Amino acid sequence: MKNPSLRPMLLARAAALACCAFAPALTLAAGGTTGLPAATILQLDAVREATARYLDVNAALADGYVDIGVYVPGMGWHYLKPSLVDDQFDALAPELLV
């Protein structure tokens, strides 16, 4: 990481994003799409498609994601792409992969 002083902020941001990102996924895993709006289902499908190439961690590393040293049981390792870190959220170009 180029600026170690950003690490606490990035970790907090990663935790917040993970909570927000996984709530719909947990709903899907627990019983399908019951209760989720159609737009949410479409967004989840788009994100899955945009990130499918990163199911192989080597593809993520080759694309500039770096291991930030965070492992959360039940989630896995967290990888950050520093060039994408900004104040914008783009689900199709995630700053963080888990």
Structure at a glance:
With 98 residues, the protein is α+β, with helices and mostly antiparallel strands. The chain has helices at 7-31, 38-51, 57-62; strands spanning 66-72, 76-80, 96-97. Helices cover 46% and strands 14% of the residues.
Q: Helical region count?
A: 3
Cross-sheet strand order for the largest sheet: 1-2-3
- N- and C-termini, Cα separation: 17 Å
Q: Could you tell me the strand content as a percent range?
A: 5-15%
Mean pLDDT over the residues: 81
Protein structure class: alpha+beta
Number of separate strands: 3
Shape assignment: globular
Largest sheet: 3 strands, antiparallel
Computed CA radius of gyration, to the nearest angstrom: 14 Å
SSE string, helices as H and strands as E? HHHEEE
Helix amount, in percent?
40-55%
Stretches where pLDDT falls below 50 for ≥5 residues? none
Q: Name the quaternary structure.
A: single chain
